[in-house]
C-alpha cells in the first residue's frame, strides 16, 4: 500500500520531529495550508512541493510514488568520488541515489590538519573512524576519535570536525537528510 502525498509529508515531518510551524517557516507556506495538505484536503503546486521538500530535507522525487527501490546497491570498485574544491574532502556515496530513502552513507577522506567551522542542519549524524584521527566538537564537548571509534549526534547541535593528525582520516558517515 502506497502512502498518499499528505501522509508522506506528515510522516517525514514527524520523523524529523518538526512542528507544522517550523515547516511553515522553512517552506514559506502557511500552517493551515500545510495542515490541509497533510490531511489530503488540498493539492499542492510544484512550487509549494519544492518549499516543503526544502523544509523536510528531501528532493522532489520523495513525493513521486513508484520511485522507490527495495534496495540500492553500490558494487566494490565503482568509482563515485566527489571532490569539493572548498573543502579538502573526497566523498563517496556508498548507496547511490536511493530515491525516497532518507539515510545517506558516505565514505569521507579528511585531509591532514583540516578544520571545519561549526555547522547545524536538520537530522542526525553517525560517524565511524576507519583510520586516522578525527576531533569531533558537538556543542561544548570535544572528542578525539581514533580508528574503531564512533559517535552519533543530532545535527541541530553545532558541530565541527578537525583532523589533527599528519595522515588522512577515513570516516564512514551516515546521516539524515541526504546531502548529495
TrEMBL record:
DNA-binding as UniProt keyword: yes
Pfam families, per database record: Cupin_2 (PF07883), HTH_3 (PF01381)
InterPro entries: Cro/C1-type_HTH (IPR001387), Cupin_2 (IPR013096), Lambda_DNA-bd_dom_sf (IPR010982), RmlC-like_jellyroll (IPR014710), RmlC_Cupin_sf (IPR011051), TransReg_Diox_bact_type (IPR050807)
The UniProt record lists the keyword Cell cycle: no
GO molecular function: DNA binding
Keywords: DNA-binding, Plasmid
Domain spans labelled HTH cro/C1-type: 9-63
SUPFAM superfamilies from the UniProt entry: lambda repressor-like DNA-binding domains, RmlC-like cupins
Protein name: DNA-binding protein
Record organism: Deinococcus aetherius
Native organism taxonomy: Bacteria, Thermotogati, Deinococcota, Deinococci, Deinococcales
Amino acid at each position: 500500500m502506497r502512502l498518499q502525498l499528505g501522509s508522506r509529508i506528515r510522516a517525514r515531518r514527524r520523523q524529523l520531529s518538526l512542528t507544522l510551524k517550523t515547516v511553515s517557516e522553512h517552506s514559506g507556506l502557511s500552517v493551515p495550508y500545510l495542515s490541509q495538505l497533510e490531511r489530503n484536503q488540498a493539492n499542492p503546486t510544484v512550487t509549494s512541493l519544492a518549499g516543503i521538500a526544502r523544509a523536510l530535507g528531501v528532493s522532489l522525487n520523495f513525493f513521486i510514488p513508484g520511485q522507490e527501490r527495495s534496495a540500492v546497491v553500490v558494487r566494490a570498485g565503482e568509482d563515485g568520488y566527489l571532490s569539493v574544491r572548498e573543502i579538502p574532502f573526497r566523498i563517496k556515496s556508498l548507496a547511490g541515489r536511493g530515491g525516497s530513502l532518507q539515510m545517506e552513507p558516505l565514505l569521507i577522506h579528511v585531509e591532514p590538519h583540516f578544520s571545519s567551522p561549526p555547522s547545524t542542519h536538520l537530522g542526525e549524524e553517525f560517524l565511524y573512524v576507519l583510520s586516522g584521527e578525527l576531533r569531533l566538537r558537538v556543542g561544548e564537548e570535544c572528542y578525539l576519535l581514533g580508528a574503531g571509534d564512533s559517535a552519533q549526534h543530532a545535527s541541530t547541535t553545532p558541530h565541527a570536525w578537525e583532523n589533527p593528525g599528519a595522515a588522512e582520516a577515513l570516516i564512514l558517515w551516515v546521516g539524515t537528510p541526504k546531502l548529495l
